[in-house]
Amino acid sequence: MPPNTPSRIELLQGTLDLLILRTLLFGPAHGHALAKHIQETSGEVLQVETGSLYPALHRLEAQGWVAAEWSTSEKGKRAKYYELTAAGRKHLVAEQSRWEQLVAAMTRVLRPAVE
Amino acid sequence: MTGSKLRRLLWTLRSAVVRRRQEQDLDDELRFHLEAEAEERMAEGMTPEEARLQAARSLGNPTAVREQTRTVWTWHPAEQLASDVRFGSRQLRRTKIGSGAAILSLALAIGACVGAFRLIDALLLRPLPVEGAEQLHVVVRKGQTPDGKPNIYDSCAYPMFQLMRSAARGQAELIAVWYPERVDVTYGADSDMEKAYRQYASGHMFATFGLKPALGRLLTEADDRTPGGHPYAVISYDYWTRRFARDAGVLGRTMRMGETLYEIVGVVEPKFTGTDPGTMVDFYLPVMMNRSVLDRNSSSARTLVRLEPGANREALQQKLHGIMYAFEKERAQGFTGLGTAWMRTWFEHERLVLEPARSGVSGMQRAYREALIALSVLVGLVLLIACVNVANLMMARSIARAREMALRVSIGAGRLRLIQLVLVESAWIAFLAAALGSLFASVAAPLVVALINPPNNPARLELPMDWRVLAFSIGLTFVVTFLFGLAPALRASGVKPSSALKGGEDPHARKRLMHSLVAVQVGFCVLVLFLGGLFVSTYERLKDQPTGFSADRVLVLETVAAGKKAPAAWDEVAAALRQTPGVEKVAMLDRPLMSGGSWNGFISVNGAAPKETLAFYRLVSPGLLDAMQIRLVDGRDFLPDDVEPRAAIVNETFVQTYFGGEPRVVGKSFRTNASGPATEIVGVMRDSRYKNAKDPILPVAYFPMLALEKDGALRSSNAATFVVKTAGPNPAALADLLRKRVAQARPEFRVANIRTQQEIVEAHSVRERLLAMLAVFFAGVALVLAGVGLFGVLDHSVLQKRREIGIRMALGAKPWNVVRRVTSDVMKLVLAGVAVGIGCGLASEQYVSKLLYGVKVTDPVAVAAPTIVLLVVAMLAAVPPVMRAVRTNPAHMLRTD
To answer: Which of A30, B335, B629, B766 is deepest in the core (most CB within 10 A)?
Structure first.
């Protein structure tokens, strides 16, 4: 039973969720690597706040879209690795197409095609 | 449930269990993040120190991160409940005094309720622990007394029982049980007599009830064959334990009762303590060992009926009624002596009814049913009063927490969550109170049972602590929680964040609720006081009821002899007692006055047909009137040569009843038997009590103890009662000495029972005394609780109006005006409550009148006393808040805001 959360941050969360799920498509990763990866691939545009990354990861885990497991990192330290689940993959596909529709719609409105 | 939902539920359940590990994991995870970040910075060339600092800065406030992450962990309802429980206990510990007072007052009230339930359950509700208890009925006979009053009883003659049993075969099994009696038994010499409860019972009772022996064998059908031919006894498990310490050697031991020896053949299993709740039978004897078992005129067996499955109760009742009618009709034809019209036709008015008896049948049930129900109403009202107090407390608390609640609402807590939060806190109070209360009940309930009978013959009622009691207590706790917790919970959850956070909401809404609760509380309290007052004055009336004799310094020695002894032997013992130091007067009678035994008959005057009113008889020695201070109105006491039935001393009611109140009846005569000699009235005595303290005075005739048998010899007797008037104020102190004197005077004489006459008289008001005591106690509790409640509400209202009071006083209002403003609302409600309480009291007439004596619900004192007491308490409760209001310093008050 997730607590009620005000709707205005819903969008931001959804966005971060989408980014996390998308990044995990490449394979399991821990929180730090995820943050770095998002930051790098977005061309340093998207600064992932640690303060919202971990809550988001835990929420995704609770929703069953990612699974977590403790294992040893490349540097020999214990780290919590997140992995996309089948449900997460399905969710990602749905969310991604919704996102693309949204972006396309937004683009059409903001930049009307110049004939 | 979809796969993902199931997954979520599982995850939540797991997380509930591993919450602590999860916290640890989150810490590890964040630490790893910091280290990874620092290493990266170091790879970029920073010093380790700098890198760590930078990393920490990038993470932000770790506590905030942790806090935010935690909030997305889902909370399972059970876990939420657990956290609410923890929160509730913290709340209680924070407000120790208020919560403690609430718990104590509730504990007292819940304890009283649980105690009352245990008594009612044990006596009236709990099925007997026997097979087919649900099908068990008892034969009840509803007839009329000679003067047309209803006469309900449940005894049958054994020969009639036998006829009924064979007629019912196939539809029901009938069991005859005699009334349990406290008798003398000995396992050795006469001097080692002890008391035990005996019951004659059909041998097949044990098999019918599916009972098994713990040792030896039980009685069977084979023990019900030959009169006097089955000298066997089966003892109860309780008696085996108490008397024989569960010695297996008890089998084959002989016990003696009177002249008969019985062999103990078995012990019945522990669960069975008899069919008479209130008495635990010690041993069972075959019915054939009862001397009057085949006497058609001795009606002394109770008939239990266990219906076979599918049997028709109505049809069986009809059938048994037919048998009873035929039996009694035949018996009436054989009556000789003074026949009256009633004696020839009484059975025409009698109906046989099968009443359910799943809990057994006993005199105590009949005597205490109404009293226990009245008691449970009283304790129920006290519980409601206590609930109102706690509800007001919770209400005040939830108002004080309005901001906290508003905050919870604005961060997304739902209405149900808040209700749960407040209810859980209420449940804490209720459960602690119930636990404490159950302890209180387990002490109080046996105490009340112990008060039911005189101390030398206590009532014994099993008060088991089992699932019935547990279920009742838990159910009551939930009811109580909702009673006092729901209103505050609803209020708390109805909080509007916008107004509460701004600093307050409509204060009138909660005032209205608190005030109406006060009116309810006052109403209940007045009702408790009203009923309590009625019970107390009933007891007072009964206690002060003149008995017509003096019980002061009188000791009563019920004495038995081994075999019948001539009057001279009895006189010898009386003389020995008379010579004992400290003894003033000694006299004899057949049975002590007001001890329950009654002996009666019809009276014929001047050869006319006997009147339909029964006269009651007693045999007394010369000097008894003097020893008991029964005043002679006319004539003389018996002389040593007066014999029964030639002479009699009669009371004023006797003269009124049979001689129409003639001014002089000494010298006149009457007959108690058509063929016997006439009885001459030698004296008229003042009315005195014969059987009990409540019924109207009976017409009584005393006859001399001395009687001539048909052959002219003096009648011998094996039992009589000595009445000893002592010189000292404490007659009981002489008991042991007198007991010894009797045995010294004639070794074959023995005192079976020694009591003070006062004790015998007081036994008639035991129930009333018990009710009065409990009523006073609960009235006190109710008053205190209602007083505290009133104080709380008034205090609150002064607190709220302090600014208004300040302004008014600054503008020159007189203290009186202030007092009126503060109290008028509440006092109006108090008056309304009083009116409702008294109204309920007046309406309770038909339910309580059976328990009252010499007092009516419409008695002006009964109405006025509770009203005045409550108003006084209300005023006392109002004093501190009013003083506070009057002392309000306007300048100070106005400056603070």
So the answer is: A30
pLDDT at B151: 87
Mutate to test the interface with A, among B69, B80, B83 (most CBs of A within 10 A): B69
What's the confidence (pLDDT) of residue B13? 58
Residue B702: predicted pLDDT: 95
* Averaged pLDDT, B165-180: 94
Average pLDDT of B701-719?
88
Residue contact A80–B60, C-beta within 8 A: no
Asked if B235 and B215 touch (Cβ cutoff 8 Å), the reply is no
Give the one of B33, B74, B412 whose C-beta lies nearest to A50's C-beta: B33
Tell me, what amino acid is at B84?
A: D
Spatial CB neighbours of B894, under 8 Å, sequence gap ≥ 6: B803, B806, B807, B810
CA angle in degrees (0–180, nearest 5) for B388-B391-B393? 110
- Sign for the CA dihedral angle at B808, B814, B818, B821 comes to negative
- CB contacts of A5 in chain B (<8 Å) are 412
- Cβ–Cβ gap A80/B73 under 8 Å: no
What is the C-alpha to C-alpha distance for residues B169 and B156, in angstroms, rounded to an integer? 18
Residue B351 pLDDT more than 90? yes
Residue B720: pLDDT band with limits 50, 70, 90: very high
Residues of B in contact with A79 (CB under 8 A): 29, 32, 36
Nearest to B791 by CA among B881, B884, B885, B869: B881
Contact B438, B473 (CB under 8 A): yes
Q: Between the CA of residue B879 and those of A109, B784, B829, B882, what are the distances in Å?
A: 76, 15, 17, 5
Q: What's the whole-number mean pLDDT along residues B783-811? A: 83
User: What is the spatial distance between Cα B755 and Cα B731, in angstroms, rounded to a whole number?
Assistant: 9
Phi–psi pair at B203, nearest 5 degrees? -60, -35
Residue B32 neighbours by CB under 8 Å, 6+ apart: A30, A31, A32, A73, A77, A78, A79, A80
C-beta atoms surrounding B288 within 10 Å: 20
Tokens coding B720:
């009589």
Of B437, B167, B531, B117, nearest to B321 by C-alpha is B167
Tell me: the pLDDT tens digits for B554-604? 999 999 888 889 999 999 999 999 999 999 999 999 999 998 777 888 888
3-state secondary structure of B855: coil
Amino acid found at B695:
D
Per-10-residue mean pLDDT, chain A, length 115: 36 71 88 84 72 82 85 81 90 87 86 63
Distance of residue A107 Cα from the nearest chain B Cα, in angstroms: 33
Place of tokens 């708390």: B492
pLDDT at B320: 95
Is the complex ipTM more than 0.90? Answer: no
User: Which tokens in the block code for residue A89?
Assistant: 């993959």
Whether B14 shows a pLDDT value over 70: the answer reads: no
Please give the model's pTM, rounded to 2 decimal places. Answer: 0.74
Give DSSP secondary structure letters for B325-391: HHHHHHHHHT--SS--HHHHHGGGG-EEEEEE-TT---HHHHHHHHHHHHHHHHHHHHHHHHHHHHH
| Chain B residues within 8 A of A58 when measuring between CB atoms | 26, 69, 72-73
Strands B232-235 vs B260-268: parallel, antiparallel or unpaired: parallel
Of A32, A58, A77, the CB nearest to B69: A58
Q: What number of C-beta contacts closer than 8 Å exist between A and B?
A: 91
First to last CA, chain B: 58
B61 or B150: which carries more pLDDT confidence?
Answer: B150
- For residue B7, the chain A residue with the least C-alpha distance is A64
At residue B495, the pLDDT reads: 64
Give the gap in angstroms from C-alpha B497 to the nearest C-alpha of chain A: 15
* Separation of alpha carbons B878 and B761, rounded Å: 45
Closest CA to B268 of B235, B297, B226: B235
The pLDDT value recorded for residue B286 is 96
Tokens 């591993």, residue located:
B18
